[in-house]
Amino acid sequence: MSSQKRERAEKAGRGGEDEAARWLESAGWEIVDRRRKTKLGEIDLVARKDGLIAFVEVKWRRSAPDLDLAIDEKRLSRVAAAVGAVAHEYATNGEDIRIDVILLAPGAQPRHIANAWMP
Fold first, then answer.
1. Is 87 a member of any domain?
2. Residue 36: what pLDDT?
3. Structural domain contains residue 42
4. pLDDT at 77
5. Of 18, 38, 62, 82, which is the most buried if we count CB atoms within 10 A?
6. For residue 19, is it within any domain?
7. What's the domain count of the chain?
8. Whole-angstrom distance between the N-terminal and C-terminal Cα of the chain?
9. What is the CATH number for 26?
10. CA distance 108 to 96
11. According to the model, what pLDDT value does residue 105 have?
12. Distances from the Cα of 60 to the Cα of 7, 23, 34, 49, 115, angstroms
């Protein structure tokens, strides 16, 4: 991938994360962290609501049909590994944890897949 393409993809990804964060906040979630980097990978968003910590993978695509292929077991397993490394830092009061996915495309309603990873 050229550096220009990578830069555009990075910018679109950040925009998608911002949109997902606003959407979650409108649904009553508190965003407690963004783009959390670990040695095992990155977690796009960390959100809290009602005794639950959600580690959220955000996928943005140019068209809604492309969202069907945006997430797979391999990608989710990387997110799960990253979550395993840092979950204890966020779930400090006995909160439940889960991994969610939010899929975004222009003109489409956000698709929120709650508890997307169940090993």
1. yes
2. 97
3. yes
4. 94
5. 82
6. yes
7. 1
8. 32
9. 3.40.1350.10
10. 30
11. 94
12. 14, 14, 16, 23, 19
C-beta of residue 43 within 8 angstroms of C-beta of residue 36:
yes
- 43: tokens are 């977690």
CA distances from 76 to 2, 57, 108, 111 (A): 25, 8, 22, 16
pLDDT of residue 108: 92
Q: Is 73 helix (H, G, I), strand (E, B) or coil?
A: helix
Contact 12, 20 (CB under 8 A): no
Is the entire prediction scored with pTM above 0.85?
Answer: yes
Q: In a structure prediction context, what are the per-residue pLDDT tens digits for the chain, which is 119 residues long?
A: 677 665 666 655 678 899 999 999 999 999 999 999 999 999 999 999 999 999 999 999 999 999 988 988 999 999 999 999 999 999 999 999 999 999 999 999 999 999 998 76
The string over 59-94, giving b where at least 16 C-beta atoms fall within 10 Å of a residue's C-beta and e elsewhere, is bbbeeeeebeebbeeeebeebbebbeebbeebbeee
Rg (CA), the chain: 14
Residue range(s) defining the domain that contains residue 97:
3-113
Answer yes or no: is 33 within a domain.
Answer: yes
